[in-house]
DNA sequence: AAATTATGTGCACACGTTTGCACAAAAAAA
DNA sequence: TTTTTTTGTGCAAACGTGTGCACATAATTT
């Protein structure tokens, strides 16, 4: 495709202006004009798009000798329209495959049915599960989903918010990226009177509805379970404490230790939320004087790699060392042994979050302040932890 | 929330009608009216939504004593507008946070920048990777993504198409559900002059652009690799042959056998694309007289379960039996041993598909017929296959 | 100086809907 | 019959933007 020095619009405009000279006395200057004229014409035709045709309310009105307003009302079962007219119109619309123009409708009524979703990562068991839940709930309520992916990147998250506000969505479901530390973009959503619900990775700087997993209880139960199976020195592979989900799990972990009268050893509590960190930190812990006899990990992936490292160091799982993950993704079924984990019920979280947002949009959620929903977690014991000693 | 017998619109309408009686001679009938009147008023106020306010072109025009047309042109750097007016308008717009109303723009120009995506499954490594690729390419070109999830269900797929057409998207990227056998809904997309590009699970009944993985070569190379490592009786755990991706892989598998002068045993080629089927079919194959010494599986998940079953039957991997998957998802790293697989380059497929669709939309893809893009596959040998004997 | 051309702006209509209001005709009540 | 009420329909304006055209005024060419 040739490069355009000016936009098509500019070209058309100039063209019209140039064409507007009188043909009385022609100069070299005019000849140049002519040349340019034809060149531009060609270029414009070349780039012209074909317009598509769709039947409208007006067309129906014209065909049935009615006014557009009558047709509009007939389509919506307005009580002032006679039964016969309604049937007439609806049948005509049916046979001619009339599709209301959503754009025009939304413009007129100043309200639409598109909700935006911002996800920090999509190639990710938990978030894709949540997305599936959101999608199902939204679809069943007649809402569309505008999908954005921040990829754990602050700049992309800001751009996503802009995109969604430009598209005039009626609400936004968001989970924060790891790198986000400023919240102006989220505040802007609220300033624009667009409803906002956070899920999972909530934003502490913004006062709005949220749906979170009960991380504290999940961690507490998992750690207590390992204690009941005889573990004494449980290591915690966590994430940055600025993320509430990570901090809550650490608190659940520590409280479970305290409740069972076990020491809370700060050396056993590490930030280790990626595969690379696991390769570094797990061997270090295994080398230390006081060997841990269990690992409680921030997610299933870290847990799976942790298991690999532990096994290759010659320890048996779960005989020597127990391992527990978090999420209950499908990798927990294919490791050897299978991985004990905490189910986060992502699908339900998605449904609850979408439900809450839609209620806000439709004014059905009347509670004035901030609404917080808690999704229950569930311990799923598999092969990487021992049986409870009775 | 109380149940509404009639819609709000109907209520308002009736209200106005009823209010329209003369107050001269009041009867019991009228009193009933009055009661109903107030009840309805209350109900309407109760359900009323707040309208949001946004600054428009008109507002700017009024504030600067210009006409809306001038403001419109100034914002778009139209050449007919003087520099000072343009700066004036753009600065005013900037400070007052003017956001063009996308709906109105799209309505006026009859063209929008939203493309629809239909994915059969989202809690799925490959498809979520493709979605990430689509998202990145679309975002960089200024397009929005309307996300639909058919969940491998024909009815939901049809509904998704309806939704996307109603939303007037300018193009659709789709991957077919397993249960789809009629294609009218896809044809309707084309009949509505909306661009359509299939990816991965293409629809053979529809003549349109597509992007597919080179399944044949992927399968061929994987099987040949296993042959070179000394495997002689390779089983194929495939999927329904009506899906081109499954059929192409079977052909690659068979051709690799033939090329290397190995017999093609129909008993070793099964339909086994779910975990449940694997639990049934793999043990059956292991019991048979002529034990396979390798499994080539349609996806990583089946391969992982296959490995579990093989191991628990007492065979060593890869010493006794080799296993190879397809996709290169993250489960291939956490199985024991790690799983040899074929990388499908999902992210690139997403980008290529989006690129192709956008080119069609913008008229940059001038090739008139059907365009097919092939995404290269790549064998990724890991721990579940042996080293090649030199 | 006169004719021509360039420049900048505004009017009015269009896109496809929805909706307040007016109005005629039919039905019911007085 | 006359008045009131009900019923069904159409007119016109609106949502926020884009664009053809006309029309002044300024700049340039004859």
Number of helical stretches of at least 4 residues of chain A: 14
- In the CATH hierarchy, what is the architecture of the largest domain in chain A at level 2? 3-Layer(aba) Sandwich
What's the mean pLDDT score of chain A? 87
List the uncertain runs of chain A.
1-10, 19-52
Number of strands of chain A: 12
Strand content of chain A: 5-15%
Q: Give the oligomeric state.
A: homodimer
Shape of chain A: elongated
The SSE string of chain A, one letter per element, is HHHHHHEHEHEHEEHEHEHEHEEHEE
Query: Sheet bearing the most strands of chain A, described?
Result: 6 strands, parallel
Counted up, domains of chain A total 4
Structural class of chain A: alpha/beta
The CATH C-level name of the largest domain in chain A is Alpha Beta
Describe this structure in words.
The structure is a homodimer of 390-residue chains. Chain A is 46% helix and 13% strand. Chain A is an alpha/beta fold. Chain A folds into 4 domains: 8-47, no CATH class; 57-100, no CATH class; 111-213 and 348-375, Response regulator (Rossmann fold, 3-Layer(aba) Sandwich); 215-344, Rossmann fold. In chain A, strands 2-1-3-4-5-11 form a 6-stranded parallel sheet, sandwiched between helices. Chain A has a 4-stranded parallel sheet with strand order 7-6-8-9, with helices on both faces. In chain A, helix 13 (300-312) links the parallel strand 8 and strand 9 (322-324). In chain A, helix 3 (57-64) crosses helix 4, helix 4 crosses helix 5 and helix 10 (215-228) runs parallel beside helix 11. The radius of gyration of chain A is 31 Å and the shape is elongated. At the A-B interface, helix 1, helix 6, helix 7, strand 2 and helix 8 of A face helix 1, helix 6, helix 7, strand 2 and helix 8 of B. Chain B binds a DNA duplex (30 and 30 nucleotides) through helix 1, helix 4 and helix 6.
């Amino acid at each position: 495709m040739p490069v355009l020095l000016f936009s098509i619009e500019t070209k058309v405009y100039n063209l019209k202006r140039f064409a507007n000279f009188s043909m009385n006395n022609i100069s070299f200057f005019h000849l140049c004009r002519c040349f340019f004229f034809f060149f531009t014409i060609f270029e414009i035709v070349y780039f012209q798009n074909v317009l598509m045709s769709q039947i409208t309310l007006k067309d129906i009105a014209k065909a049935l000798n009615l006014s557009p307003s009558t047709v509009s009302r007939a389509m919506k079962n307005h009580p002032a329209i006679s039964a016969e007219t309604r049937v007439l119109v609806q049948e005509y619309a049916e046979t001619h495959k009339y599709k209301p123009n959503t754009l025009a409708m939304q413009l007129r009524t100043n309200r639409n049915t598109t909700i935006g979703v911002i996800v920090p990562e999509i190639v990710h068991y938990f978030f894709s599960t949540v997305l599936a839940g959101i999608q199902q709930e939204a679809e069943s309520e007649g809402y569309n989903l505008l999908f954005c992916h921040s990829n754990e990147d602050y700049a992309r998250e800001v751009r996503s918010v802009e995109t969604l506000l430009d598209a005039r969505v009626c609400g936004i479901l968001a989970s924060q990226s790891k790198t986000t530390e400023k919240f102006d973009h989220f505040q802007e959503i609220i300033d624009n009177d667009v409803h906002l619900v956070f899920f999972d990775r909530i934003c502490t700087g913004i006062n709005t509805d949220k749906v979170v997993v009960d991380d504290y209880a999940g961690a507490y139960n998992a750690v207590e379970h390992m204690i009941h199976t005889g573990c004494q020195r449980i290591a915690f592979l966590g994430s940055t404490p600025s993320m509430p989900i990570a901090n809550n799990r650490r608190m659940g972990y520590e409280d479970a230790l305290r409740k069972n009268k076990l020491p809370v050893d700060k050396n056993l509590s590490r930030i280790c939320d990626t595969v690379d960190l696991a390769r570094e930190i797990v061997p270090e812990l295994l080398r230390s004087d006081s060997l841990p006899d269990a690992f409680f990990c921030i997610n299933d992936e870290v847990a799976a790699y942790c298991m690999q490292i532990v096994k290759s160091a010659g320890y048996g799982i779960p005989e020597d060392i127990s391992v527990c993950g978090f999420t209950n993704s499908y990798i927990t079924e294919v490791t050897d042994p299978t991985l004990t984990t905490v189910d986060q019920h992502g699908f339900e979280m998605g449904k609850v979050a979408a439900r809450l947002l839609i209620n806000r949009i439709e004014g059905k959620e009347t509670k004035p302040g901030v609404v917080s929903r808690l999704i229950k977690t569930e311990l799923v014991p598999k092969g990487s932890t021992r049986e409870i000693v009775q």
